[in-house]
């Protein structure tokens, strides 16, 4: 959905995902509807060497057409995790690797490209779950997303100390209905994918350092999550 929002704004796009058939269909749709250029490549983000190869191939594609990679959005992730101590380490490890280590590979590759270009905008999609340690099935997911947010802040600190013309944005979405949670019950304040994508893209375009989206009600909820006693937080989850 974010791809369509950016296409509407006139951006050429480089999109990677695991399924080539869906990528090709999306490429055809976006190029026909919006008259933009779309580059696509398959990528499993847990194949770390492939992350670097695909990102560099995209950079070369764009460079050959006379441009640069303006933004790289680190958005791949999984929502599956289990209660700690119940023998489900393999599931929790897979979640941690996809949501943090894979994101680390993407950030590393993106920053190599941006440093070479001396420009760029790195966007990491974290989660409201990152604001506080959470119980039960959310524990590993929240920890990985918190790690991603801290990683982005550290990269942002580098750009400040080195005076690099590179923006780093961390987006904390609330509950958004996506392919990850189709079939699950609706949660309080959950928004549909189109609305969620709209507020995320607006925050990215504003080049914010950090944003809770949608701001209402997630900004005040985020403040409460940070400072309320943990025993109260657990009652709402």
UniProtKB/TrEMBL annotation:
Q: What Gene Ontology molecular-function terms does this entry list?
A: oxidoreductase activity
Which keywords are on file for this protein?
A: Oxidoreductase
What the entry lists under InterPro entries is as follows:
NAD(P)-bd_dom_sf, SDR_fam
Q: Name one Pfam family in it.
A: adh_short
Is-annotated flag, keyword Oxidoreductase?
yes
At the top level, the lineage of the source is Bacteria
* PANTHER family assigned to the protein according to its UniProt record, in alphabetical order: DEHYDROGENASE/REDUCTASE SDR FAMILY MEMBER 7B, DEHYDROGENASE_REDUCTASE SDR FAMILY MEMBER 7B
Q: What is this protein called?
A: SDR family oxidoreductase
Organism of provenance:
Moraxella bovis
